């Protein structure tokens, strides 16, 4: 449904990504950020789904063409740890947001796992954004403090998550509330990465559909 594109980062360098356009010409935009596996077919499928829901969706390729197979967690961890999160967010993700906003459209940001952490960093450092939806990812506070978040956030977390643990989630929620920030937070009795239908060991269709409906509604409310 979508297509591979190249777009400019604020520093003038080229970045690539997958773009799926909504049927209408003046649609709001959503930047979609990958899990630690890279720009997989599953993430492209989510862009297609956003397009069908009425949004122009662009997933920037933060790994520059590298996609890690689902069984190879060591390689995924290596790729994630070698990613410059601040450069990825303030340059590549911001460039994607600028691309989607070029016709005056409002733009949101969403991401999964690694992309969830990038979404929170973007909510602090990318001025073009109007709203963010976080899926099971929280960055370290030195990358983005809850007190510095500038946009409304919705967040989806799994109770059986040993990476983005319930304790970490509770701390994030508490810090956001203490700072008076706009946060809708949902917890699901599911595993980390429960939205990813290509990973049957962790996919929870009921939780995934509930989260999808909430995310689409939140973006319609804040992006138009």
Key terms:
eight-stranded mixed β-sheet; 24% strand; 6 helices; 37% helix; Rossmann fold; alpha/beta; 224 residues; globular
In short:
This protein is an alpha/beta fold.
**Gyration radius, to the nearest Å?**
16 Å
Mean pLDDT comes to: 97
Order of helical and strand elements:
EEEHEHHEHEEHEH
What's the CATH H-level superfamily name?
Alpha/Beta hydrolase fold, catalytic domain
Runs in which pLDDT lies below 50 for 5 or more consecutive residues are none
Domain module tally: 1
Number of helices: 6
Largest beta-sheet details: 8 strands, mixed
Domain Dienelactone hydrolase: 17-222
GO molecular function: hydrolase activity
InterPro entries: AB_hydrolase_fold, Dienelactn_hydro, Dienelactone_hydrolase-like
Keywords: Hydrolase
Could you outline the blueprint of secondary structure elements for this entry?
Layout: E1 3-8, E2 14-20, E3 29-33, H1 41-52, E4 56-60, H2 73-82, H3 85-100, E5 107-112, H4 114-125, E6 129-135, E7 153-160, H5 166-178, E8 183-191, H6 205-223
Parallel strand pairs: 3-4, 3-5, 5-6, 6-7, 7-8
Antiparallel strand pairs: 1-2, 2-4
Overall description:
- With 224 residues, the protein is of the alpha/beta class.
- It has one domain: Alpha/Beta hydrolase fold, catalytic domain (Rossmann fold, 3-Layer(aba) Sandwich), CATH 3.40.50.
- It is 37% helix and 24% strand.
- An 8-stranded mixed β-sheet has the order 1-2-4-3-5-6-7-8, sandwiched between helices.
- Strand 7, helix 5 and strand 8 form a beta-alpha-beta unit.
- Helix 3 crosses helix 4 (114-125).
- The chain is globular, with a radius of gyration of 16 Å.
- It starts with a strand and ends with a helix.
- Its EC number is 3.1.-.-.
- This is Dienelactone hydrolase family protein.
- InterPro entries: AB_hydrolase_fold, Dienelactn_hydro, Dienelactone_hydrolase-like.
């Amino acid at each position: 449904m979508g297509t591979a594109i190249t777009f400019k980062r604020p520093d003038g360098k080229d970045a690539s990504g997958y773009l799926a356009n909504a049927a209408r010409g003046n649609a709001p935009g959503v930047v979609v950020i990958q899990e630690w596996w890279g720009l997989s077919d599953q993430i492209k499928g989510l862009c297609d789904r956003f397009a069908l829901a009425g949004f122009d969706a662009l997933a920037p390729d933060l790994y520059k063409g590298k996609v890690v197979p689902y069984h190879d967690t060591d390689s995924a961890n290596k790729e994630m740890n070698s990613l410059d999160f601040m450069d990825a967010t303030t340059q590549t993700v911001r460039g994607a947001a600028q691309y989607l906003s070029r016709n005056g459209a409002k733009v949101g940001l969403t991401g999964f796992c690694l992309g969830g952490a990038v979404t929170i960093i973007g909510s602090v450092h990318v001025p073009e954004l109007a709203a963010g939806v976080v899926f099971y990812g929280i960055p370290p506070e030195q990358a983005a403090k809850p007190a510095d978040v500038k946009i409304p956030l919705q967040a989806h977390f799994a109770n059986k998550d040993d990476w983005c643990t319930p304790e970490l989630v509770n701390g994030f929620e508490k810090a956001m509330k203490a700072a008076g920030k706009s946060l809708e937070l949902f917890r699901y009795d599911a595993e980390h990465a429960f939205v990813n239908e290509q990973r049957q060991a962790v996919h929870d269709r009921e939780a995934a559909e509930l989260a999808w409906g909430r995310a689409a509604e939140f973006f319609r409310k804040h992006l138009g």
